[in-house]
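User: Thanks for the earlier help. One more: Lipoprotein. Can you show the sequence and predicted structure together?

Assistant: Of course, both are below.
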Amino acid sequence: MSSTQDSARPRWRSWLGRAAVIVVAGLVAAGCSAGGQDGGSAAATTPPAPTPSRAYAAAQVQATVTFYSAADNDPPGSTDIAHPSDRHRTAGGSGTFEDPITMATDVREIPVGGVVYSPTLRRYFVMEDDCAPCVQEWGASKKAHVAFWVGGGTDSRVAACEDSLTSARPVTIEYDPPPGLPVDTRPLYSDGKCWPATSPRG
């Protein structure tokens, strides 16, 4: 389930959804044609046209970005997520395109499984959890708001890390990003340290 935070750091609870307004669609096209035969001649077949690469929307949006951890998840201390899948059964991820980090928002903004990229953090995130403040803000004003998972920390320093990563102003995130963007796989929070002071994953 999603997390909960106090008034300075909005608390996340396990609700339906989150908020914003970007619908991103990937278009996949494939073409295939075959030549014919005339009487007595050998069959001539035109090779299938190559399938184009998927088109990524790569839509940049200004959004409120906050953070949560096991400490303020619902239930507290857990890594539970509202929408487990084959990709992640619990909150996690390394931030690569192939293994994006768990994110919480409103399903009306980003569908479950939708991916965003943070140029500031240089990480990919995937929609897997619900966020009560995001739902409320979407319902009131269609305000874009996402919550990024910082890790399974439950110690006293994790809240300070969440606060330090949170910007007072909306920041740019990219909906439906392409692969190949710069990635920093250092944990956002680990062993009492907050990114960018964290060490590379072993």
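User: Great, one quick takeaway?

Assistant: Strands lie at 59-69, 101-105, 115-118, 123-130, 145-151, 171-175, 189-190, 193-194.
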